[in-house]
Amino acid sequence: MTIGVPREIKIGETRVSLTPSLCRRCVALGATVLVEKSAGQSAGFTDAEYRAAGARIAPSAARIWGAADLVLKVKEPLPAEYGRLRKGQALFTYLHLAANSRLATQLLERRVLGIAYETVDVGNGVFPLLKPMSQIAGRLAIQVGAYFLQSQHGGSGVLLGGVPGTMPGHVVVVGAGNSGAHAVQMAAGMGARVTVLDLDTRKLEAIDMEYRGRVVTLMSNPANLEHEIADADLLIGAVLIPGAKAPQVVSRAVIKRMRPGSVIVDIAIDQGGCIEGIRPTSHQEPVYTEQGVIHYAVPNMPALVGRTSTLALTQATEPYVALIAEKGLTRALAENPALTAGVNTQAGRVVCPAVARALGYS
Ligand SMILES: NC(=O)c1ccc[n+]([C@@H]2O[C@H](COP(=O)([O-])OP(=O)(O)OC[C@H]3O[C@@H](n4cnc5c(N)ncnc54)[C@H](O)[C@@H]3O)[C@@H](O)[C@H]2O)c1
To answer: Can you give the residue ranges of every domain in the chain?
Structure first.
């Protein structure tokens, strides 16, 4: 089994899919590991560290894609990488296919075994490979939102925590899952007024218990959304229906009622976004302004903190990567139902039911 680790090419991406420590474990389990030159550099890992861990350093992405049985990545393949996908090859990475039919077609035509980090499922609604990146994105959403609220960045000039004698900023978080709960934690920690909305009363109950009234919890329905968002300085979109395209829970009409210079951070943009009409941005140009409101919709926010994100991601992927390195793909998939739930495309078919529904294959 040859595991290939290409350098990520998405704009501003700084993560790498394998640390030297995980590389050492895979090599000890019998795998050959090929790492593209400088793949770990922006996460703080040198080629020398990978070499010392038993990897071979390949000079180009072509070498990696050409030789690997399993390509281990962070982000979905970009159009520049489509030509490198080979029949029978396996790819283990974030795919977000529900919002990317073009990539889905490529994986099907090239008969790639596409295993998506985000649908690996240990049951009870727990997606262990999505969770750490959602936690990071949730925390970053408040940091990023506070930055763009600053006057010099076109924002309304509201300090989220306020100071004595002034109103703190109002942060409205839609979705109280992993990313939403972590956004709530950061916003509350900064002293903002925080409102969180979800459809799941258990999530709201947990937040209510934790913050004992310091955070307002509300059922997510059109009336509550409209009322709260009209008064929001910072709106965080953090909803998810696993595998599916994000539901558009906030309409343009509601956004129009926000004060000029307010900020939206749509974390769910990787699944298409939960704000009507929002379009993806990049680390190069992270925001645009529409209806006077600043929109931030970067699909790879954790790349802002490449070191932390790489460590958090690989500690979650490690059990699955090590299992594949030890047993090979067929046995690993047969033995591990959580990993099997990650399979999105196989032998030219979309096999994940939620993704198939979203793409119109079922
Ligand atoms: N932009 C990025 O860089 C980045 C990074 C990590 C994760 N994400 C994305 O963030 C999104 C959220 O992920 P998560 O791990 O927090 O998901 P999660 O499953 O933990 O939480 C999602 C929450 O949304 C709620 N929800 C569903 N429909 C709703 C509605 N109509 N109104 C209110 N709440 C609703 C669910 O009940 C759930 O509590 C996903 O799309 C994920 O891929 C993006």
So the answer is: 2-120+306-359, 131-299
Does this model's pTM top 0.90? My answer is yes
- Pocket, ligand 1, Cβ cutoff 6 A: 118, 130, 133-134, 137, 174-180, 197-200, 203, 220, 238-241, 246-247, 249, 267-271, 299-302
Rounded Cα distance, 219 and 361, in Å: 33
Q: Which of 90, 26, 50 has the alpha carbon at shortest distance from 325?
A: 26
Per-residue pLDDT of 135-179, as tens digits, reads: 999 999 999 999 999 999 999 999 999 999 999 999 999 999 999
pLDDT band at 261 (very low <50, low <70, confident <90, very high): very high
Q: Which of 69, 121, 266, 270 is catalytic?
A: 270
Instruction: Write the burial class of residue 231 (CB in 10 Å: 0-12 exposed, 13-18 middle, 19+ buried).
Output: middle
**Burial of residue 93 (number of CB atoms within 10 Å: 0-12, 13-18, 19+):** buried
CA dihedral 38, 43, 46, 47 (to 10 degrees): -40
Q: Report the CATH number of the 131-299 domain.
A: 3.40.50.720
**Which residue from 224, 267, 287, 301 has its CB within 8 A of the most atoms of ligand 1, so it is best to mutate?**
267
Q: What is the DSSP letter of 123?
A: B
| β-sheet with 56-58: strand ranges across | 56-58, 32-36, 2-5, 70-72, 90-93, 113-116, 343-346, 349-350
Cα separation, 95 vs 346, whole angstroms: 14
Q: Is 182 a catalytic residue?
A: no
Residue whose CA is at the smallest distance from ligand 1 atom 37: 200
How far, in Å, CA of 332 to CA of 20, rounded? Answer: 22
Indicate the angle between helix axes 20-28 and 306-335, nearest 10 degrees: 20
Q: Domain 2-120+306-359: give its CATH superfamily.
A: NAD(P)-binding Rossmann-like Domain (3.40.50.720)
Bridge partners, residue 345, by sequence: 114, 350
- The rounded radius of gyration (Å) of the Cα atoms in the chain is 21
